[in-house]
Amino acid sequence: MADEHRRAETIAAANGIGTDTAFGAVTPPLYLSTTYTFAEFEKARAYDYARLGNPTRDQLADTLAKLEGGARAVVVASGMAALDLALSSLRPGDLLVAPHDCYGGTHRLLSMRAERGHYRVAFVDQTDETALRAALAEGPRIVLTETPSNPLMRIVDIRRTTALAKAAGALSVVDNTFLSPALQQPIALGADLVVHSTTKFLNGHSDVIGGAVVAAEATLGDELAAWANTIGVTGSPFDAYLTLRGVRTLFPRVERQQRNAGAVAAFLAAHPAVARVYYPGLPDHPGHAIAKAQQRGFGAMLSAEIAGGREAVRRLVGALRVFTLAESLGGIESLIAHPVTMTHAAMDPQARERAGLGDGLVRLSVGLEAEDDLLADLGRALDAVARG
Ligand code: PLP
After folding, report:
1. Is the beta carbon of 175 within 6 A of some atom in ligand 1?
2. What is the domain count for the chain?
3. Does the keyword Transferase apply (predicted)?
């Protein structure tokens, strides 16, 4: 069966399986060599030096490009490197429109690049079309979108935003980390580039830092691949091997994790110690209808406002036994984070306030544990918070 007719689940599970020509290994081998023999003088083979190209990394890139419906993927050392690479065409004076409530590390990267004069950045609430149109009227070169956003799960209409960006002559870059291609494919909705922290759902086992940029068009993908080699940010082969192993189970992991997340969201929404739950799967979430239209599921991430602020959060995380207090997300284990003191601590307090990140906010990445254990853990810990 030709690859283009294979379903995404089949690509994730089996792309590259059984292609080893040396020994017929079913699982594609891991090539760690940094350098490759020349066939003869002046005649390189398919690979010569591993910063530029590596068979294991290329196998991951090929799989990610197919899963996102893009022409080419570039696998790099981290999600931050992927974002920086995707924005590398910006010149001094160029304007970047970015989400006002993006991941804290993204906010820091863009702010520091702007501070150094590498480009200008306007942080905009992209769910507000008037604000978005006003920013687009300034003639940006790139519009960066993160949806669902980290950590408030705001949903941006990708089709609408990419169409408006295109009409304004801007390139659209979408960070798809929170959902993975199993649940959302931004290229089909008009994005020019998709960015991933493969550290999260794609690898899925909290043991690799990695990133990828997927380009809708080969020309832009080729340019980014060449620049990634020039600045030396391509990912390590061993990390690519582990990430591809994680991708094999992407669909069943995400399916099960989002089922757990739906149950956790409903449970939290009904608990008196919780003031508010942010999960796009809840019908009262402001982005529910758009999420339903552009996503294949509501994902395994959610956040919640704990009544009683920081002190209540301190008691909650101290009482939890199944959820672990840690940054990051998308792994098989359930994690809880306090954005103000952890993932978004790098954001200045005004920017945090503008993004709506309060002291009582916690972010949950829901894993593969039994639903009953997750709910019992939260119930016991929240009861302890309510008792004071
Ligand atoms: N994009 C999003 C949405 C993230 O949540 C993160 C990290 O949490 C990143 C990018 C950065 O990825 P990495 O930590 O792999 O550099």
Report:
1. yes
2. 2
3. yes
Q: What is the mean pLDDT of residues 31-40?
A: 98
Structural domain contains residue 3: no
Q: Model confidence over 167-194: pLDDT tens digits? A: 999 999 999 999 999 999 999 999 999 9
**Domain match, 110 and 241 both:** yes
Q: How far is CA 170 from the centre of its chain?
A: 22
CATH number at residue 122: 3.40.640.10
Q: Confirm or reject: Cβ of 177 under 6 Å from ligand 1.
A: yes
Does the C-beta of 101 come closer than 6 Å to ligand 1?
Answer: no
Q: Could you say which of 247, 264, 282 is where a domain stops?
A: 247
Q: Write out pLDDT tens, residues 105-116.
A: 999 999 999 999
User: Measured from the CA of 328, which atom of ligand 1 is nearest?
Assistant: 8
Please give the biggest Cα pair distance in the chain.
Answer: 77
Cβ partners under 8 Å of residue 267, min gap 6: 375, 378, 379
* Catalytic residue numbers, as ranges: 51, 103, 175, 200
Specify the pTM: 0.97
pLDDT in tens, 230-262: 999 999 999 999 999 999 999 999 999 999 999
**pLDDT score, position 3:** 62
For the CA of 199, the closest atom of ligand 1 is 15
Mark whether 268 and 377 lie in a shared domain.
yes
Mutate to test the pocket of ligand 1, among 75, 78, 80 (most ligand atoms within 8 A of CB): 80
Number of helices and strands (H, E) in the chain?
A: 13, 12
Parent domain of 30: 8-247
As a whole number of angstroms, the distance between CA 388 and CA 115 comes to: 44
